[in-house]
Design the sequence.
């Protein structure tokens, strides 16, 4: 069998940068296993009989990386007469109605599909050189072997598990910013924007699934590969670059949050031990004892950011990010990050904790919307793009959605399950954002981009939330850093040593520290990252890939063309608008 040189090595990897996206739980829950450890009970990062683990994130010693060929355009299926036929035509002028399965039944043993990737007994085999001489070689494969292989590739994951995996992955640290985003947009305009963005992100994610199924549904194929196949190599480079951007934005946001949680948690523990009581430092009729408005506390002691008992050595914006580096950096140099995946359930626990937290606080406060608030509830604020930028990250899962959905047992239910998952995400954001906004007892302009900052340090539920989130982020950050390091180093070198790893880790930690010191605004970081990455990954690439398929099928219509061109334009305007928001 001929072995052609691989043009690109991404077949041996998964592009799994999310947070996504979707930050608090992105890459930290069930779908993290899909992204890093695809379809095998044995981690790809561990030594197996077939592959050596990627030591320190390198690509060395992969058993098949050197034999994988350029993936051809979607291979045509065989007819019942064993004759190659053209790809399945579209049933309508706009929607792609693809029914092609990735497993082909082969009756003629003299004909083999050399590019079909399949799995058997948890080992991967790559059949190469489909495009060159698929009729020139004779290779005997028994029909029962192919049949059993196709059965093995089907995942046992139910639709229910798939739905909650997507829900768990999309929801992230942006959950803490949704009330602030609604405040920035206006009450009812904010609700409408959440509905519009959820529907738009759902549609573009579904477009990626359709394009992947049209290509053949092969495992190991994600947006980066599809961009090269149906667009060009520059689209592949752009996709990889913005996948790096998503991960970089995620780890920066995590660092800011971890600094905040570490700072407040240590202060609470210290004051509890020494008996310091600052509960009533701010106590007047307009400020409930447990709720703060930091924007109005510039001239008085801020009980969130000023603790004389610990002194200047423990400062949120100067020293704490450095202390955090001492805690985190040793964890980044592990050559096998699978240990941190053991804490996946913390992501679900932290999300459920935040939802219960908001419900309890909202019930205790009651509705706090006066006549003026209701009159202004339909007013669209000029700062509304802050919410749309945040939502582009809040609904982001596009760079790993294909991998996640490939684990669904019934592939025909992918569209339904994806829709249900997005509906659950939207409802979760509505519960947290709308309830907190409506019931917040102070002026709505007081809502912080991290709503936990609106609470005193001694508030019991708030203390629990910060400690749970801190520990959860400490386990997620090394995974995201590992994935980002993989993308960065594999884009430059095929193999690399521990020295390269340490240098990259130092650079990443330094960047995070700089943001935590000079731009410690989680809402600003998320909205810029979401708008920038969303412009490419959420709005542009899915639309262009969909149009490319329509063009191949000669089914492009004026309506579909205008629709899929307007989506990237919307994404670009969303990105551009972020630079004109003055309020942070």
Sequence:
């Amino acid at each position: 069998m001929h072995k052609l040189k691989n043009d690109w090595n991404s077949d041996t990897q998964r592009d799994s940068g999310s947070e996504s996206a979707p930050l608090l739980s992105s890459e930290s829950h069930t779908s993290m296993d899909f992204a890093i450890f695809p379809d095998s009970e044995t981690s790809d990062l561990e030594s197996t009989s077939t592959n050596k683990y990627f030591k320190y994130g390198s690509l060395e010693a992969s058993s098949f990386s050197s034999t994988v060929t350029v993936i051809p355009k979607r291979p045509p299926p065989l007819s019942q007469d064993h004759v190659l036929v053209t790809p399945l035509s579209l049933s309508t002028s706009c929607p792609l109605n693809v029914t092609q399965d990735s497993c082909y039944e082969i009756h003629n043993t003299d004909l083999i599909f050399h590019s079909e990737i399949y799995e058997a007994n948890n080992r991967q085999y790559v059949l190469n050189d489909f495009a060159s001489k698929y009729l020139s070689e004779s290779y005997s494969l028994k029909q029962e072997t192919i049949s059993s292989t196709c059965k093995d590739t089907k995942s046992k994951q139910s639709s229910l598990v798939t739905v909650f995996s997507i829900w768990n992955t999309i929801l992230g640290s942006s959950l803490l910013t949704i009330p602030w985003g609604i405040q920035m947009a206006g009450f009812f305009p904010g609700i409408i924007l959440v509905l519009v963005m959820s529907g738009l992100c759902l549609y573009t994610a579904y477009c990626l699934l359709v394009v992947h199924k049209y290509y053949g549904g092969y495992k190991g194929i994600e947006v980066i590969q599809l961009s090269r196949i149906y667009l060009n190599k520059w689209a592949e480079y752009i996709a990889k670059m913005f996948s790096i951007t998503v991960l970089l934005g995620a780890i920066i946001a995590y660092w800011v949050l971890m600094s905040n949680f570490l700072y407040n948690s240590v202060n609470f523990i210290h004051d509890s031990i020494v008996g310091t009581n600052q509960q009533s430092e701010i106590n007047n009729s307009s400020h409930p004892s447990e709720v703060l408005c930091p924007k109005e506390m510039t001239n008085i002691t801020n009980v969130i950011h000023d603790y004389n008992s610990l002194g200047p050595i423990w400062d949120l914006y100067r020293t704490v990010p450095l202390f955090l580096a001492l805690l985190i950096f040793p964890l980044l140099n592990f050559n096998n990050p699978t240990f941190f995946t053991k804490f996946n359930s913390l992501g679900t626990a932290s999300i459920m904790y935040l939802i219960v937290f908001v419900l309890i606080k909202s019930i205790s406060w009651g509705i706090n919307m006066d006549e003026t608030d209701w009159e202004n509830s339909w007013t669209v604020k000029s700062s509304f793009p802050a919410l749309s930028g945040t939502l582009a990250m809040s609904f982001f899962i596009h760079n790993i959605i294909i991998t996640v959905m490939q684990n669904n047992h019934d592939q025909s239910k992918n569209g339904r399950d994806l829709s249900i998952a997005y509906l659950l995400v939207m409802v979760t954001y509505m519960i947290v954002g709308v309830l907190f906004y409506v019931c917040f007892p102070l002026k709505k302009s007081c809502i912080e981009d991290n709503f936990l900052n609106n609470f005193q340090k001694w508030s019991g539920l708030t203390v629990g939330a910060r400690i749970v989130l801190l520990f959860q982020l400490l386990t997620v950050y090394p995974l995201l850093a590992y994935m980002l390091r993989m993308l960065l180093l594999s884009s430059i070198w095929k193999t690399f040593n521990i020295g390269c790893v340490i240098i990259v880790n130092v650079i990443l930690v330094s960047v995070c520290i700089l943001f935590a010191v000079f731009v410690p605004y989680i809402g600003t970081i998320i909205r810029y990252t979401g708008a920038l990455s969303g412009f490419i990954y959420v709005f542009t690439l899915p639309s262009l890939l969909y149009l490319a398929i329509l063009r191949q099928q000669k089914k492009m219509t004026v309506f579909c063309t205008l629709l899929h061109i307007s989506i990237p334009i919307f994404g670009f305007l969303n990105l551009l608008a972020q630079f004109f928001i003055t309020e942070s």
